[in-house]
Amino acid sequence: MKTKWISIAILVSLLKLPASADRASQTETPSKPNILLIVSDDQGWADVGYHGSPIKTPNLDRLAREGVELDQHYVAPMCTPTRAALLTGRYWSRFGCTFAHNDRVLPWKTWTLARALKQTGYTNYITGKWHLGSRTDWGPKKFGFDYSYGSLAGGVNPVNHLYKRGPYSKTWHRNDQLIEEEGHVTDLIGAEAVKIIEAEHKGRFFLYVPFTAVHTPFDEPQKWLDSASHIEPDRRQYAACLQHMDAVIGDMLAALDRTGQRENTLIIFFSDNGGTNGDDSNRYPDTKVKGKIRGLNTPLRGWKTEVYEGGIRVPAFVNWPKVLEPSKITTPVHAIDWMPTICGLLNIPEAKEAMWDGINIWPLLIGEENPLSTNRELYCQGVRGNSTALHQGDWKLVIHRYKGQKDQIELFDLAADPYEKNNLSARQPNRVTAMLATLAAQQKRDNDAVPGVNELAVTVETQ
Known about the structure:
Helices cover about 25% and strands about 15% of the residues. The protein has helices at about 25-30, 60-65, 80-90, 115-120, 185-200, 220-225, 235-260, 310, 340-345, 360-365, 430-445, and strands at about 35-40, 70, 75, 125-130, 145-150, 170-175, 175-180, 205-210, 265-270, 315, 315-320, 325-330, 335, 375-380, 385-390, 395-400, 410-415. Strand 14 and strand 15 form a beta hairpin. Helix 5 runs parallel beside helix 7. The protein starts with about 20 loop residues before the first helix and ends in a 19-residue tail after the last helix.
């Protein structure tokens, strides 16, 4: 079918929430949309209702059912790398980032999605987890966001909002300045998103909502524990946290409906990595809920931090009423594709410094054509370089590196063996050799944008 959006000039948005509205013009035609980008944290493949989970996620299920479900959506095996990929269209290893950490990830001049949208009149908001630099002078406003709120670091204690013990424990902020406030982290993130949606806007908004749910530590109110009473006790906190997040997403959808913006809002959702095998919650101050609580990735193999499918293939969908027809796409797509796709949708040309690894998948989403060949390559540098994966069509090469030992090589035919049970490397030596050469070429491109390396000092935006 043909796309139902048209390009129009958009008024340049102001930093603060404007007092006057152009709400009517936003709803009359499906022009350049508002963009609501929701990222969950550590949500497993099997931990969503539309994948058969007993955990209740009615809002996610409806958005997936009425939108385009992305059955093979790939990410990094940890959170910080995925966030770098999402906001740049590049593999995380280009920035030397292969694990979750608190240092600045992006060079100052990085052409981020927020910067690209700003040049075409969008106002950019983030409410939730940043984790691309945990100091206040490394926050979202330095990389194109007009407004920021939430955790500068990673997942936090849901009640006191403290990150792990150490120099970045105090991390809760507004506009890159540390603050203190009361409330459950999921409610605060969601309420801020609703406030932004309901504000009067000139032009369009880009609202990035990276939840801390369902990342450890857990401390859910009794209301949500009661709602998850049908789930086994050792996963009840996890289920309550996920159902809590789903309800808050429902609040955001209701706000879009109330303000007449739903039909002109593009919604993208995915998890930042696969479900965890049980992170240690004791590293967070004043943690009440002890123990290691798991996500669930079945029937996929592996966990968060691993390059098997369970670590990097996640629940995902895109939804835009009356523009995207309900469907399910099994073609592999990736977090690196969202910046090229959104820029393509809005006719924003690729800047010469972008060097995207991702591609524009919009034609795939609307069913006009498939821009992805059957042999599309997807490269994944694992945590601290200890493992690496390369998808090439249905074939997947996995390499594990152990100190003082020979690399362990695995080859899987995902079309016949989607759960990675049968290592075919010994039977396919020529294919392994060819894929190793391709992998080496990808690795040569890594570390070309490491912060502080050949990086000129620049004045970055502070407004």
